[in-house]
Design goal:
mainly alpha, Rhopdopsin 7-helix transmembrane proteins, 0% strand, globular
Length: 219
């Protein structure tokens, strides 16, 4: 039996168009961020922004393809990539904050980086198994990855204050709140276009994290 969710043709059009816009946003943001790191001649920033950019593009593109494809077998295959790419995006979103802002703050940056990528690797493996059977485990792991930042929230605020970029924290938190709001909306599945609305909240959350990453001092 298929575990596939079914959307009307016009819903699927809204679904893939919203994240197709996300692909464009991710590509533009990646170019700008890497250019900023290059001008600053900051190799850690180049690495962090490259990881972040790859995660953004991979997630938005996987989602777009999944919702665009109509053939059932291919759609089911793309669904695995769609779910796996969520782990990739979450882990990649940590990179600018762990490898740039917190990298020299004792062990905090590397601890967060190692934790989120460890969970991501396991989560990606789970995503290529039985999605329905592992749905609760996947949801829990998404939440845990998002909350990992709380482990180092105090040093994050202190470091941002010291470097005169406390706004970075507020953009990071705002992005998280948009993601949470989107998840709540997603939980009300059944209403028409609810998934496309969820996609819009994902884009808002991602935009906040892009802005936060872009204002981290590189000097």
């Amino acid at each position: 039996m298929s575990n596939e969710k079914f959307y009307t043709p016009r819903e699927e059009k809204a679904n893939y168009l919203t994240h197709a816009a996300g692909v464009v946003m991710a590509l533009v943001a990646t170019i700008i961020l890497i250019y900023k790191a290059t001008v600053a001649d900051n190799r850690w920033a180049m690495l962090a922004y490259s990881i972040f950019g790859f995660g953004m593009v991979a997630c938005m593109l996987s989602s777009t393809l999944y919702h665009f494809v109509k053939e059932p077998k291919r759609k089911a295959q793309y669904r695995h990539f769609d779910h796996a790419s969520i782990y990739l995006l979450i882990a990649a979103s940590y990179s600018p904050f762990t490898l740039i802002l917190l990298r020299e703050e004792q062990f905090w940056g590397w601890l967060l980086f190692a934790l989120v990528w460890s969970i991501a690797v396991v989560g990606i493996a789970i995503s290529f198994g039985q999605l329905k059977r592992n749905s609760h485990l996947k949801t829990a792991s998404y939440v845990i990855m998002g909350l990992v930042i709380l482990i180092a929230f105090k040093p994050l605020i202190e470091t941002a204050n010291e470097k005169g970029c406390i706004e970075v924290v507020w953009w990071l938190v705002s992005g998280g709140l948009f993601y949470i709001a989107g998840a709540i909306i997603y939980a009300t599945a059944g209403r028409e276009f609810i998934h496309a609305i969820f996609h819009l909240f994902v884009l808002l959350g991602l935009a906040c994290h892009i802005i936060g990453a872009s204002i981290i001092p590189l000097g």
